[in-house]
Automatic annotation (TrEMBL):
Gene name, Swiss-Prot/TrEMBL: cdhC
Residues reported to bind [Ni-Fe-S] cluster: 211, 214, 300, 302
Organism encoding this protein: Archaeoglobus sulfaticallidus PM70-1
Enzyme Commission number, as recorded: 2.3.1.169
Names of the cofactor(s): [Ni-Fe-S] cluster
Location of the CO dehydrogenase/acetyl-CoA synthase complex beta subunit C-terminal domain: 190-420
Enzyme class: transferase
The name this protein goes by in its record: Acetyl-CoA decarbonylase/synthase complex subunit beta
Subunit structure: Monomer. The ACDS complex is made up of alpha, epsilon, beta, gamma and delta chains with a probable stoichiometry of (alpha(2)epsilon(2))(4)-beta(8)-(gamma(1)delta(1))(8).
GO molecular function: acetyltransferase activity; anaerobic carbon-monoxide dehydrogenase activity; CO-methylating acetyl-CoA synthase activity; iron ion binding; iron-sulfur cluster binding; nickel cation binding
Length: 520
């Protein structure tokens, strides 16, 4: 898509400011990076869940960029009503002898960093998901215009990324224009960036690229970006990592020599393992780029989508940031994000970028799309063309199933591969056994017999239809609430209510109790 300055319609209010700002009414420092602005402390919210928003960097010829100029289109900060949410677009035009379109996403991703250096300003997420809050404290200190925010951000861009020789910003709060530019300019550019990498595969290159930007809040997180695995924030592709490593070799994106291939299906490489060990401070030593369960990629917290394993159906669900309802496992995105983030390898949860759904190697070690059982309708529609024809209609959405029981019914009805066992397309190996209902019944009978023999009713074990991965205990989600049934014993029994608990199970052994000597 051609890069050109956006047209500002006649009649829309705008203000312009040229040149550097002498001083700002707020502090600027990396120490504000972790600052959170809660709702009661917030003056206004921009973008987020209630309003559209996006951030976009476009590389332009130097003569077209007016250095340090800011244009604010629509109501400025001092015209906004306290407590309200507004649409928000931040567009930056950048120029420099080394600046090309390859670098746009890398520069764009740093907007998140630099804006979080501003005291009283919180920036979350990226691309079309941006969510900003401005604190009341910053307003009291004198922040009253987006010009101040844009100038501070542009100053940081130029200081930290010296290859940017000129930068100009357009901040937009006019609802109609934000919506129009999101659909007509930003989304096509994001789509173009994501599509670019589709023809290239992991085996075609000698190097992958790292990103350690998010180590500021997830110190052990190391994103490994390969052609078949774009970053989990969705902002960095292999091409972007390569471009960033070239212009800023000491920066957060470094080349990772692949080394020897250890597991071609899981996507494990000796070079990646060595790099991950070093950059995570020894926290983890192995990473498989295309595995959900076995040494999965770490998740920092910026993921666009969370994958979650549902042992009851032996399948994987995916939920995106914008889906507000609980998934069939009973947990909303926000709760699962707490489980998934922090830069850890969590078997059972995985954070990914939406563009990973395009990958030919999408969780291929675990059956790829044939292991996927549920997605919100909006997400499914967005990636529908990447789902193989023979499985697309077998993946449930909230219209088919909102609970595990409904999901089970749906999967049975459509004869989803998880029901009889998933055959992994990449090598034709059957990797799951399917729902072994007869075996389940036998186990239940055995448990019942055991109960009769022991005359001590036990807590009913739920037969699990999955096998924990070798060498790695499966970490199950924190369940909102588990009630262990009352023991109908002579003493009236007890009732245990466990809330917000994490349950770790290495192994479940169900044994029929043997009669003790002497017949007791
Ligand atoms: S999520 Fe990964 S790729 Fe994206 S900014 Fe953070 S560290 Fe970089």
């Amino acid at each position: 898509m051609e890069r050109k300055k956006i047209e500002i319609p006649e009649g829309v209010k705008k203000i312009e400011s040229v040149g550097e700002e002498a001083e700002f009414p707020f502090d600027i420092s990396p120490m504000y990076e972790g600052e959170r602005i809660r709702k009661k402390e917030m003056y206004v919210e921009l973008g987020g869940t209630e309003q559209p928003g996006f951030e976009l960097v476009m590389a332009l010829p130097a003569e077209e960029v007016e250095d340090m100029k800011v244009t604010v289109v629509g109501p400025d900060l001092n015209e906004m009503e306290e407590g309200k949410a507004y649409p928000y677009a931040m567009i930056y035009y950048v120029a420099g002898s080394q600046v090309e379109t390859d670098l746009e996403p890398v520069i764009e991703r740093r907007n998140h960093d630099f804006q979080n250096y501003l005291e009283g300003y919180m920036h979350l997420n990226q691309r079309y998901d941006i969510w900003i809050r401005i604190g009341k404290g910053a307003i009291k200190k004198g922040l009253n215009s987006f010009v101040q925010i844009a100038k501070a951000t542009m100053m940081l861009f130029k200081n930290e990324l010296p290859f940017i020789e000129k930068i100009e910003a357009v901040y937009i709060t006019d609802a109609e224009l934000v919506e129009k530019l999101l659909n007509e300019v930003a989304m096509p550019i994001f789509e173009e960036r994501d599509a670019r990498v589709e023809a290239l595969h992991d085996e075609d290159v000698d190097e992958f690229y790292s990103c350690t930007l998010c180590q500021s809040f997830a110190p052990t997180n190391v994103c490994v970006v390969s052609p078949d695995r774009p970053s989990l924030c969705g902002a960095i592709s292999w091409f972007d990592g390569r471009a960033a490593a070239r212009v800023d070799p000491e920066g957060p994106n470094k080349a990772i020599p692949k080394g020897d291939i250890i597991d071609p299906i899981g996507g494990e490489y000796s070079g990646v393992n060595e790099f991950a060990k070093e950059e995570s401070g020894g926290e983890y030593e192995r990473v498989k780029l295309h595995s959900f369960f076995d040494y999965p990629h770490t998740s920092c917290g910026c993921f666009e989508v969370i994958g979650f394993y549902m042992p009851e159906v032996d399948g994987i669900g995916w939920v995106h940031r914008g889906y507000p309802e609980p998934a069939p496992n009973g947990l909303p995105f926000s709760t699962m994000a707490g489980q998934t983030g922090g830069g850890k390898q969590i078997a059972g949860f995985l954070g990914i970028g939406i563009s990973y759904f395009r990958s030919k190697k999408f969780i291929q070690a675990d059956g790829g799309w044939y292991r996927v059982v549920w997605m919100p309708k909006e997400l499914k529609e967005r990636v529908a063309k990447y789902i193989p024809d023979d499985i697309r209609d077998k993946i449930a959405t909230e219209e088919d199933a909102k609970t595990i029981d409904e999901l089970k019914e749906f999967l049975k009805k459509v004869d989803h591969p998880v029901v009889k066992g998933v055959v992994r397309p990449v090598d034709g190996k059957k990797i799951t056994e399917g729902w072994v209902e007869e075996a389940e019944e036998e186990v239940e009978e055995e448990v019942e017999e055991a109960e009769e023999v022991a005359e001590q009713p036990a807590v009913a074990a739920q037969p699990q239809v999955f096998a924990p991965q070798p060498g790695q205990p499966l970490q199950l989600p924190a369940l909102p609430q588990i009630q262990i049934p009352a023991q109908p014993s002579a003493g009236g029994g007890i009732k245990l209510v466990i809330k917000d608990a994490k349950i770790y199970i290495d192994k479940i052994v169900i044994r029929k109790p043997e009669e003790k000597k002497g017949g007791k």
